[in-house]
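Hey,

Quick one before I head out. I ran the complex with flavin-adenine dinucleotide overnight. Inputs first:
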Amino acid sequence: MPGHVDILIVGGGAAGIAAARRLAGGRHSVLLLEAGDRLGGRAFTTSLAGMKLDLGCGWLHSADRNPWARLAEAEGWPIDRTPPAWREQWQEIGFSGTEQRDALAAFEAFDKRLREEAPPSDRAADALEPGCRWNAWLEALSGYINGAELGCLSIADYLAYEDADSDVNWRLPDGYGALVAAAGTDLPVRLAAPVTTIDRRTTPLRATGPWGSVTADRVIVAVPTNVLAEERLRFDPPLPDKVEAAADLPLGLANKAFLLLDRPEPFERDTQLLGDPHDPATGSYYLRPFGRPLIECFFGGAGARSLETEGEGAAADFAIQQLVGLLGSDTRRRLTPLAETRWGADPLLGGSYSHALPGKADARARLAASVENRIFFAGEACSASDFSTAHGAYATGVEAAEAAIASLS
Ligand SMILES: Cc1cc2nc3c(=O)[nH]c(=O)nc-3n(C[C@H](O)[C@H](O)[C@H](O)COP(=O)(O)OP(=O)(O)OC[C@H]3O[C@@H](n4cnc5c(N)ncnc54)[C@H](O)[C@@H]3O)c2cc1C
């Protein structure tokens, strides 16, 4: 570990890696400190039963302008461009075509109200039509998209993402998390090095943790908002504006469970089933992703939180119960739990992706603003419109790196 670097990066997720890649090989000495024992953060591919499974990000959203997609193409990673099956219930099981059309019409009316009659509260739930039978479904969608209920969601923030999203979504059979981690190969990285304090009383700055300390002329902070809001990484003297901005952008919760599928043939590949369109906590089930003998289960918002609180195995049990309800009791014998995530319980992350609280959409710019032109901030939550994604994180990392370079010249 060097005693001093020109630019220190704290946090080795998509944003920190992108910042380090932008800086590596340049004029300035660089070091990336990652608290965990691997690079990638919320991008994480694991291998189970001979399959590469993305426990965190899986979709290259806005793939036509996604820098990770460009990198995958440049480096020859196979890309699956099959459009997502999110909008269609496989064989209309438990959710008829007529119901799906009604629900979609309710979504479109809700979206129109958000845009044209936005309530002064900026609270998305206030734009729901009281008594509408699809409100539970809209809540379930919010759980998947935002990791949070409509009651704690800023309309302005939500629309900023929606308007920027190009609606082109691809996947990587070898794993999005694997791509992000591979992008960190050969960078100056130290793992298992949590930064607990950044001392800004001195020049240079000094970052300290249980591993020791390092001084740096510039620091790029690329940790999740919960880490900043809960002051698990502190500044000395403190930066209360940053703590407040981070608290205005809490991480919502989305979790996955993977079920091995015995005799998968009757199930069509890359199709989807929603567990119960009238349950706001329902799971959503991707059948045979990439044609694999697998069901990928997705939970968001309140549903994800309650299953995570129930403990290990609860998500898989709930998924199997919903799938048996849709597909019949014979299905139970064909499903074997393989893995499930608990992103909220990860002490280095504490959730899945950020959303702005009502009235707090400006927190993204407040969080992203540099301090004294020597402390820079990156991470998905700093993105004005691509927040909650790995490509948004990438762009903020590059931006922070370029701002740090400019500040040194
Ligand atoms: C279940 C799930 C599904 C998702 N699906 C998608 C998807 O399909 N598409 C998409 O684009 N995005 C998706 N996302 C979101 C995406 O994964 C994240 O937005 C993105 O990876 C965040 O990158 P980041 O660099 O901002 O933060 P992180 O990945 O959180 O990286 C921050 C890093 O900082 C480290 N750290 C924390 N504290 C300290 C400290 N004190 N000192 C040093 N290091 C520290 C952490 O260990 C972590 O490695 C999903 C996320 C989840 C959980």
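The longest helix spans residues 97-116.

Talk tomorrow,
K.
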